Amino acid sequence: MAGFMEKMVLGMTISQLVTNIIIAAILIGMGIAIGFLVKYLLNRVLEKADFKNSQKSFMGLFVSVVRWSIYILFLNFALIRLGIPQFTDWLTNILVVIPALFGALILIGVGFAIASYLKEVIEDSRISGWKVLSEILFIFVNYIFIVFAFKTAFISLDSGTVNVLVVIITAALAAGFAIWYVRK
């Protein structure tokens, strides 16, 4: 007759399962502690930097994304240790999406900054048709960066699906813009 500690649960003995639960709890605790430490250190660094209000909001978003990525990473380590593949696969997919979404936000911000700069350059030049040209260039540059942002955000999907999504979203935006312009 098998002893209490030799019974199998989830393909492990009870003692292995208890050990894995304890290690998983330690990993989660470490993740929380490291997440708070990183948040504290990043906030200290950002306090010393002189940012405008809009930049402070963006940096706050950055700190939150980094902190939660650490939490999810250590939760993933804990689930791997427990040996529950359904949760591990799900969390791995989340870990791919979070940095991709953050990268997409950065691309949109950079695109907007470049588009705004180019718009100002054209407006300052006062060449013939500068108003229309500056608006077209502004929209075009933003559009290009938004397309790259979509491709970055949906990096976990195959490129064919992403291209179809980009075409659908572009068509919807163009239709919405056309309706708005006609009613204006």
Topology:
Blueprint: E1 8-9, E2 12-13, H1 14-48, H2 53-82, H3 85-125, H4 130-153, H5 159-183
Antiparallel strand pairs: 1-2
Give keywords.
single chain, 2 domains, 84% helix, 184 residues, mainly alpha
Describe the structure in your own words.
- By secondary structure, the protein is mostly helical.
- It has two domains: 1-83, no CATH class; 85-184.
- Helix content is 84%, strand content 2%.
- The chain contains five helices and two strands.
- The protein has a two-stranded antiparallel sheet with strand order 1-2.
- Strand 1 and strand 2 form a beta hairpin.
- Helix 3 (85-125) packs antiparallel against helix 4.
Terminal CA distance reads 84 Å
Flag low-confidence runs: none
- The total count of helices amounts to 5
Strand content: under 5%
Helix/strand/pairing class, anyone?
mainly alpha
Order of adjacent strands in the largest pleated sheet:
1-2
Task: Identify the overall geometry.
Answer: elongated
What radius of gyration results from the CA coordinates? 25 Å
- The amount of helix comes to over 70%
Mean pLDDT: 81
Q: What is the H/E order?
A: EEHHHHH
- How many strand elements? 2
Structural domain count: 2
Largest sheet: 2 strands, antiparallel
Provide a concise account of the structure shown.
The protein is mainly α and 184 residues long. It is built from 5 helices and 2 strands.
